[in-house]
């Protein structure tokens, strides 16, 4: 195990410093920070000359997805960070055979990364973590399949096979080639009858993707196996079936809150061959983060992520591990990894799920009326801000398709691409929306979550099988009362499924305003109509 510390700056997605090259003027919103070719060249020439002076240059050939799979893509990353090399060894298929793929296909994504700290500079390196936060810049040139990242060591900004390649650049490739690159987990669920189905689910960062991908069912007879916890590449095959691969080879999970109760499989996975970043540790070298308190006595001495020595019982408001501290470990160590997790043909997807942290107004689960309505539900996705982004507080933010920081081209065109997936010859997966995080009037969660989420997945899979267990509502198809197994739970059905009219009207109005501001004239007419129809149903039916 390797424990890495870095300073406060540069340990979250640097969204405001993540740029995409554009050739044409458009809406300047938060769904991508766009820059002109001339301005980008100026920024690059201000940073990169001599930026690696005195450091070691590493060349990393890697494959996203199984090497040789028709769904995989390859890249080369140049970096001056050994941390990046070690993590890329875990997170990608780093192998000499990648050179053979490049030689035969002549296509690869070019990735350049520098921490921006030449040894000749006068910069002070804190905690052995070289970075240059004042000049951090993560730039993408989709047409050239080029990523250039400067000044940050954070995983999403420096492990360029991850979000930069696997979502932003791959999203552009997917648009050009007719497939989808999405911020989604992939899991298989087998019911007590032995029937297996695969699900892909999109949640904003730190909203439970890893927990769901490694779910331990609370109901006997069910089995969950993990294919991937973060990114899905999906393409319809010649039979019209949507097939998905996990392009990554490891897990880069949020540590705080992970424990043997919330995610025992993640804990088992990261017990060896793992790189921990910005966690705390006990005086005798054991790992620590918030959520592991029960494993140690109150007088245990903890070395915090900033190097301070405190007692576990210390009541300071300062966290002992950074809220976005991470574990980086090989996927093949997961006790419930699916035998087909590296199948080059991918696994067949029966359902797509969107979800976020919605403390008010949004039901536990609902199904879209059809594909178009489902795309609208994804476009309207919102969630409380998390530690994985550089925003703080508890404000509910828009995160369309859970891709707000990761869309690599015009978001209106991205929605058009999703809408264009629907064809008569294809077996379209059903689309659902879930909300594990609704609160009651006392501020308590109305749903227990974690392993009990299998009860909701059970309902979803029965909908996939055509069971008549749903009822129309203005915002989607809700479960018929008592059609979800609540046995053994003290759960109030209405607290999970009530639809407050005023809240929902305000919510859809705010969504319409947001999408018009952020997407403008490029917002597909189909999505506009779906939103208007949704508002009219809420007004007339509630």
From TrEMBL:
<dbReference type="GO" id="GO:0019543">
    <property type="term" value="P:propionate catabolic process"/>
</dbReference>
<dbReference type="InterPro" id="IPR018091">
    <property type="entry name" value="PEP_carboxykin_GTP_CS"/>
</dbReference>
<dbReference type="InterPro" id="IPR008209">
    <property type="entry name" value="PEP_carboxykinase_GTP"/>
</dbReference>
<dbReference type="GO" id="GO:0030145">
    <property type="term" value="F:manganese ion binding"/>
</dbReference>
<comment type="subunit">
    <text>Monomer.</text>
</comment>
<dbReference type="GO" id="GO:0016301">
    <property type="term" value="F:kinase activity"/>
</dbReference>
<keyword id="KW-0464">Manganese</keyword>
<feature type="domain" description="Phosphoenolpyruvate carboxykinase C-terminal P-loop">
    <location>
        <begin position="179"/>
        <end position="537"/>
    </location>
</feature>
<keyword id="KW-0670">Pyruvate</keyword>
<dbReference type="InterPro" id="IPR035078">
    <property type="entry name" value="PEP_carboxykinase_GTP_N"/>
</dbReference>
<dbReference type="GO" id="GO:0005829">
    <property type="term" value="C:cytosol"/>
</dbReference>
<dbReference type="GO" id="GO:0046327">
    <property type="term" value="P:glycerol biosynthetic process from pyruvate"/>
</dbReference>
<keyword id="KW-0418">Kinase</keyword>
<dbReference type="Pfam" id="PF17297">
    <property type="entry name" value="PEPCK_N"/>
</dbReference>
<comment type="similarity">
    <text>Belongs to the phosphoenolpyruvate carboxykinase [GTP] family.</text>
</comment>
<dbReference type="GO" id="GO:0042594">
    <property type="term" value="P:response to starvation"/>
</dbReference>
<keyword id="KW-0808">Transferase</keyword>
<dbReference type="GO" id="GO:0071333">
    <property type="term" value="P:cellular response to glucose stimulus"/>
</dbReference>
<keyword id="KW-0479">Metal-binding</keyword>
<dbReference type="InterPro" id="IPR035077">
    <property type="entry name" value="PEP_carboxykinase_GTP_C"/>
</dbReference>
<keyword id="KW-0210">Decarboxylase</keyword>
<dbReference type="GO" id="GO:0006094">
    <property type="term" value="P:gluconeogenesis"/>
</dbReference>
<protein>
    <recommendedName>
        <fullName>phosphoenolpyruvate carboxykinase (GTP)</fullName>
        <ecNumber>4.1.1.32</ecNumber>
    </recommendedName>
</protein>
<keyword id="KW-0547">Nucleotide-binding</keyword>
<dbReference type="GO" id="GO:0033993">
    <property type="term" value="P:response to lipid"/>
</dbReference>
<dbReference type="GO" id="GO:0005525">
    <property type="term" value="F:GTP binding"/>
</dbReference>
<dbReference type="GO" id="GO:0004613">
    <property type="term" value="F:phosphoenolpyruvate carboxykinase (GTP) activity"/>
</dbReference>
<feature type="domain" description="Phosphoenolpyruvate carboxykinase GTP-utilising N-terminal">
    <location>
        <begin position="12"/>
        <end position="175"/>
    </location>
</feature>
<dbReference type="InterPro" id="IPR008210">
    <property type="entry name" value="PEP_carboxykinase_N"/>
</dbReference>
<dbReference type="InterPro" id="IPR013035">
    <property type="entry name" value="PEP_carboxykinase_C"/>
</dbReference>
<dbReference type="GO" id="GO:0006107">
    <property type="term" value="P:oxaloacetate metabolic process"/>
</dbReference>
<dbReference type="Pfam" id="PF00821">
    <property type="entry name" value="PEPCK_GTP"/>
</dbReference>
<keyword id="KW-0456">Lyase</keyword>
<keyword id="KW-0342">GTP-binding</keyword>
């Amino acid at each position: 195990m390797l424990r890495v510390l870095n300073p406060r700056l540069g340990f979250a997605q640097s969204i405001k410093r993540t740029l995409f090259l554009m050739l044409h003027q458009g809406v300047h919103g938060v769904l991508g920070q766009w820059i002109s070719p001339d301005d980008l060249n100026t920024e690059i020439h201000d940073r990169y000359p001599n930026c690696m002076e005195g450091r070691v240059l590493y060349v990393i050939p890697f494959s996203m997805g199984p090497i040789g799979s028709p769904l995989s893509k390859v890249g080369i990353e140049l970096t001056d960070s050994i941390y990046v090399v070690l993590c890329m060894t875990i997170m990608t298929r780093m192998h000499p055979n990648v050179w053979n793929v490049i030689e035969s296909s002549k296509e690869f994504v070019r990735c350049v990364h520098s921490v921006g700290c030449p040894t000749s500079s006068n910069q002070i390196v804190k905690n052995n973590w070289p970075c240059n936060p004042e000049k951090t810049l993560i730039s993408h040139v989709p047409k050239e399949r080029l990523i250039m990242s400067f000044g940050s060591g954070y995983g999403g900004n420096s492990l360029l096979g991850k979000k930069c390649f696997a979502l932003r650049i791959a999203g552009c490739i997917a648009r050009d080639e007719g497939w989808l690159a999405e911020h989604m987990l992939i899991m298989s669920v087998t019911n007590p009858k032995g029937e297996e189905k695969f699900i892909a689910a999109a949640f904003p960062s730190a909203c439970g993707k890893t927990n769901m991908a490694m779910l331990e069912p609370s109901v006997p007879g069910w089995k969950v196996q993990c294919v991937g916890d973060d990114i899905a590449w999906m393409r319809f095959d010649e039979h019209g079936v949507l097939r998905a691969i996990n392009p990554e080879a490891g897990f880069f999970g949020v540590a705080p809150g992970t424990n043997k109760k919330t995610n025992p499989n993640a804990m088992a996975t990261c017990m060896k061959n793992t790189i921990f970043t910005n966690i705390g540790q006990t005086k005798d070298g054991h790992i620590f983060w918030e959520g592991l308190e029960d494993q140690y006595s109150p007088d245990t001495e903890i070395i915090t992520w900033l190097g301070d020595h405190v007692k576990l019982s210390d009541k300071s408001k300062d966290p002992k591990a950074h809220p976005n501290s991470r574990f980086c470990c090989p996927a093949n160590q997961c006790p419930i990894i699916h035998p087909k997790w590296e199948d080059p043909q991918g696994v067949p997807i029966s359902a797509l799920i969107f979800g976020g942290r919605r403390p008010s107004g949004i039901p536990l689960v609902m199904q879209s009326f059809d594909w178009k309505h489902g795309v609208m539900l994804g476009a309207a996705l919102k969630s409380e801000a998390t530690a994985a982004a550089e925003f703080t507080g508890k404000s509910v933010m828009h995160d369309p398709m859970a891709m707000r920081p990761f869309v690599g081209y015009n978001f209106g065109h991205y929605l058009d691409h999703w809408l264009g997936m629907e064809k008569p010859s294809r077996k379209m997966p059903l689309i659902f929306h879930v909300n594990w995080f609704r609160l009651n009037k006392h501020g308590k969660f109305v749903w227990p979550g974690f392993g009990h989420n299998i009860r909701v997945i059970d309902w979803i899979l029965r909908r996939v099988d055509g069971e008549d267990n749903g009822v129309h509502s203005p915002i989607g198809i809700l479960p018929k009362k008592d059609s979800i197994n609540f046995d053994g739970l003290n759960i109030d059905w209405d607290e999970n499924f009530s639809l407050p009219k005023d809240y929902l009207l305000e919510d859809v109005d705010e969504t319409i305003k947001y999408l018009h501001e952020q997407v403008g004239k490029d917002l597909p007419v189909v999505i506009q109509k779906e939103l208007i129809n949704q508002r009219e149903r809420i007004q007339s039916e509630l």
